[in-house]
Amino acid sequence: MSESDQTRKRNFGETDLTPPKMPSYKAGKLLEERECEEAFARADSAFFLPMATLVPALLKDSSCTVSETEPTLILKELLKKGMINEQLELTDDANGAKIALKTALTAVRDSNDIDEQPQHTPTITPHEPTPMSVTDSTKEITENLNKFMSLDKAFRIQVASANTANSKRISANEVAILRKNFEDKQLKLYMSKVNMNGINAKNPYELAQGAKRALKNKVEELYRHEADSRVTNCSLKEIAESKYLNISSILESTKVDVLGKEPKMDASLGYKTIPICLTFPSTEAKNQLKEISKSLAVNSKDSFPKAYIKQKEKILELFKKKANLAPDTWVKADVRLGRPEAPVCLTIQTKKGNTAEKWSTKARVKILPACTWGRLTDTEKGLHITGSFTVQQ
Predict the structure, then answer these.
(1) pTM passes above 0.70
(2) What's the pLDDT at 273?
(3) pLDDT at position 12, please?
(4) Vertex 272, ends 271 and 278: CA angle to 5°?
(5) Contact between residue 329 and residue 308 where contact means Cβ atoms under 8 Å apart
(6) Are residues 202 and 292 in the same domain?
(7) 276 & 316 share domain
(8) Which of 23, 280, 292, 306 is the most core-located residue (most Cβ within 10 A)?
(9) How far apart are alpha carbons 227 and 336 in whole angstroms?
(10) 146 and 218 in one domain?
(11) CA 269, 274, 275, 279: dihedral to nearest 10 degrees?
(12) In 3-state terms, the chain is what percent helix, strand and coil (to 5)?
C-alpha cells in the first residue's frame, strides 16, 4: 500500500454509508398579510435574523425556495408562501410532523459548526512483512520475523496511543454535553393547576400569554396590600424590597410555553387548566417563583433531562435499599451544578414527612454521560452507583 493510498480520504461511495440528508418540507396554508405581520411580530428576532442566512441550506431538498436575501424579508417570505405556520413551524413532507423553525435552523447551524472543525487523525503506519521464500535460510527467516515483530510492536503502540487520545477527546466531549444538558434545564420550571377559566385562546402563543396573565393575577391577590399601595406613601427601601414588584418583573422577563393544545377541565379543581413550562432569565428568579408556588395554588416541578431519568431512578432505588429509611421519610434528588471543573452529581436529600424539618443531604452520586451509562451492564451500573455513594449519617 502506497503512502498516498494511506493518507487519501475515502468518499461516501467507498464507505458504504448513507450520506446525511436534510429533511424535505412542504408548504401549508397560505397566510394573509395581516396574519404574516402578526406572526412576524411574535418571532424571536434576536435569534431568527442572524440565522436567516441558513434558510436556503434548510430548504435545499424541498420543493419551495426563497428568493429574498435580507434576513427580515426571508422570514416574511416563508410566512407568505406557507412554508411556516403562525406558530413558526415547518411541516415534514414525509410524515406531516411539525418541526419548530428554531429547532431546524439550530440543527443546520450545529451541522455546519461540526463540518468546519479541523479533523484530528492520529498517525498510524502499518508495516507489511517481508516476503519469504522456501529457499531462504533459517537465519534469513529468523531475521525477517524479528524485524517484522519489532515493526508490529511499534504499530500496536501507535494504535494504543491513538485509541487513548481518541478516548480522552470523546470523554471530554461527553462530559461537556452532559453539563450543557443540565445547564439548559436549570432555568426551566414546569407548572400545573394554573386557572385558565375565561381564557378562550386557541393558538399556543395566546394560550401562553393567558397563562402568564393568570399567574400575574394570582401574584396580585397574594400581595394585594403591596399592589394597592400608592408609591407616594412608600419609601425607596419599601419599593426595592416589594415582593409584588419583584415577582411581577420576574414574570415579565420569563418565557412561557404551554404543553397542550387547549385547557381541559379538572373536576377536582373545578376549573380548566393546562400544564406550562417557564424559562427564567436566571436560577435566582426561578427559585423565587418556585418558593411561592404553593401560595399561588399551583404545582411546580424542576425540569430534568430525559436522557438521564433512568439513571436517576436507578440511583434512588439503590440509595433507598442501602439507607434503610423509615416509612414516613421523604426523599428527593436534584442536580446542583458547581464549578465547571467539578463533576455533575445527583444530590439526594431526606426529611421526615409532613414536618417543618429541613431537608438533609445524605448522598451525592456522580452522573455519567448518557452514552457511557448505556454501555454499562446492570452489574457495572450498580457497582458505579454504590461505589460512589458518599452517604452522610
Answers:
(1) no
(2) 92
(3) 40
(4) 120
(5) no
(6) yes
(7) no
(8) 280
(9) 34
(10) no
(11) -120
(12) 50, 15, 35
